[in-house]
Each structure stands twice: as C-alpha cells, then as structure tokens.
Design a protein that fits this description.
single chain, alpha/beta, binds phosphoric acid mono(formamide)ester, five-stranded parallel β-sheet, 12 helices, 2 domains, Rossmann fold
C-alpha cells in the first residue's frame, strides 16, 4: 500500500508503476488519471453524452435502489454537489458522510468508516481526503469501486475528465471519441500553484496521452524544475506572457493557502507576474479559452472581469462535471454488480 503523504515534493514526479503495484485498481474504480487510456476515456465521454441526453424519467430508473456513499473529509462545493446530483439523477440512493458530522470526529479510521458504509449497503464510495493515497487504502480495505474525488495534493481524475470534455467542446468537432492524436497541436498552459494542485497532476497525466503539449507556468516556489520530468509532453515556461502567446487553453489555479505549510509567497509579487487580466488577454491571447477548476479567488490568480468574461469557460466546466460523474458512477456500479463483495 502506498504511504499516505502530505509532502508535495515527494509527489511531483509520479512513482513508476513498478513501485506502485496497487495502481492497477478494481474494475469501476477511478483512482488516478494514470489508469485512463484513450479507449477508456472515449467510453466515459460517450456514456456521459448518452446519460446527459437521456429522458430524466428514464434515466432515474437506471440506478433505482442502488446505494452510493459520498465520504468527504475536506470541503467541496463543485465535486460533492455534482457527484450527488449525478447519482440522484440516475435514481441512486446517496448518503453523505463528512468528517465534521460523523464518527470520524470521534477518531474512527478510514478503514472502519469504509467497512461501515459497505455494511450499510454502499456499493461504491466517492472519497475526498486530505492524504495522498487514501483512495487506494479505501479500495483495498473495502474491495468496493472507489472514485477519487481529490486526495490531498495528489490527484483529482474526474476533474481532468470534465476539463477534457470542456476543451473538446470548443476545440474538436468529435467530442466523444478520443485517440492518442486528438489534441495534437493543442497547447494547454497550467498556471500557478502547480506544486499543491491535484488538478494539475491529473491533467498532466491525461492530456499528453491525447497528444497535447502541456506547459507549466509559475514561480519556482510553486513549480519546482523537477515538474518537467513528470512525463512526456510537459514543459516549464516561467514567463507568463510567453506561455499565454502559445496556448489555446489556459488553466489558472488558486494558490492553496491551506497547503502552503510555512512556504511564504509574496502575493503582490505573484499577482504582478502571474495574474490573468483582461489587458493580458486582449494583448497576447485574444482567442485563448480560460479555465479554472475552482474555487476561484477573484483579484488573485485572475481578475473578476476575466472570470466573468467571454473567454471564460469556468461555469461550463462545472456543468460538464455532472455528465462526467454520471458516467463514472454508472461505470462503478456496473462493475460492482459483477463482483462478489463481502458484507
Ligand atoms: N474543483 C473542485 O474540486 O472544486 P471543489 O473543491 O469545490 O469540489
């Protein structure tokens, strides 16, 4: 079992599959974007469209009387709500367990909480946890399909999938079938606090597999040079204007104040060098698509005008979250139906 870790330096370069045997997860689980292939992504995208377009009354019969648990040890608005709406939209029974209002407060472990949810009939668990690797532990202990809804500074694979669906909607006519060449010629720049960002890591794992070039842009405190070793198709460009000028998509990130752990960032200096403004967009990237996984901090990584402007896809990303998460829950419960799980 991989060690639960909060140390971002250990996480910048993913471990090799050989030292990470548990990366091969149970059918129906989605723990890491590393497990996704163009074929599996195509299946998820196609199913997202089927489910999104289905008559809601028909769709609500799909998972009637099936049980899903949402286990959230960290705050969330977008991910929690979209997973819950996705499950309910397909007729599943959902229960939300949060660290603030459950026996986790009394010291119950992740393992015991997972086994309890399984004994209560949960067939799949959606987990957000502050420790990197927690979804692997939960899957191992419960033998249920687990959907990683963000583990510490490690990964957020469903966010990478919804980001991809948003990009394809604007960049490609075929939005459901991807290959290793679908994003050839497309440059996506991820800007800001790369070091602490699980969204950046999952996108760095997914997008180059589809042919994209990923540029990472930020100050050295938030983007160590070793990040360029994270995989093929990944480059570092410290100059924001140079990165902007060569991108079709720019993904802005929040500085994760809750994870800085003593690291001091001069915010005035940061905004002077890396804040996305209307002026910069107009001058250097009038056609770039602006994305952000949220939550956004207006006036820090981007201005309010950019967030609300015509180049912003931020709310569209949120909308794609429901369709993608319906497809992931459907996939998890189809796999759960075919497995013998001890109760
Ligand atoms: N993008 C994202 O994970 O947002 P939440 O923390 O609100 O779920």
């Amino acid at each position: 079992m991989s060690q639960l870790s909060n140390n971002p330096m250990h996480l910048m370069v993913p471990e090799s599959p050989a030292s990470y045997p548990e990366a091969a997860s149970l059918p129906g689980s989605l723990l890491s974007a590393a497990s996704l292939t163009p074929e599996s992504v195509s299946e998820i995208l196609a199913q997202a469209t089927v489910l999104e377009c289905e008559n809601p009354l028909q769709r609500a019969k799909r998972l009637a009387s099936r049980r899903i648990a949402l286990l959230f040890y960290e705050a969330s608005t977008r991910t929690r709500t979209s997973f819950e709406l996705a499950a309910k939209g397909m007729g599943a029974d959902t229960t939300l367990v949060s660290n603030l209002s459950s026996s986790i407060e009394k010291g119950e472990t992740l393992k015991d909480t997972g086994l309890t949810l399984r004994a209560l009939g949960a067939e799949s668990i959606i987990l957000r946890h502050p420790s990197s690797g927690a979804p692997w532990l939960l899957e191992h202990e419960t033998q249920l399909p687990v959907l990683n809804a963000g583990d510490g500074m490690h990964e957020h694979p469903s966010q990478a999938l919804l980001d991809l669906r948003t990009m394809l909607n604007h960049l490609r006519s075929d939005k459901e079938r991807v290959t290793a060449k679908t994003l050839t010629g497309v440059t996506i720049t991820i800007v800001g606090d790369i070091l602490h960002s699980r969204v950046a890591r999952s996108n760095m794992l997914l997008l180059p597999k589809l042919g994209a070039k990923v540029i990472l842009c930020g100050p050295v405190e938030l983007l160590p040079d070793t990040a360029a070793l994270a995989g093929p198709g990944i480059e570092i460009e410290r100059d924001f204007v140079r990165a902007l000028g060569q991108s079709q998509v720019i993904m802005m990130l929040r500085i994760q104040a809750e994870r800085l752990a003593g690291l001091h960032i001069d915010l005035e200096e940061y905004t002077a060098s890396y804040q996305l403004t209307e002026f910069l967009l107009a001058k250097h990237a009038p056609d770039v698509h602006v994305m952000h996984p949220g939550p956004i901090v207006r006036g820090l990584e981007l201005t309010g005008e950019v967030a609300d402007g015509s180049q912003s896809l931020i709310l569209e990303q949120v909308r794609h979250g429901v369709a993608i998460r319906m497809a992931l829950i459907d996939r998890a419960l189809r796999a759960a139906s075919s497995q013998e799980v001890p109760r």
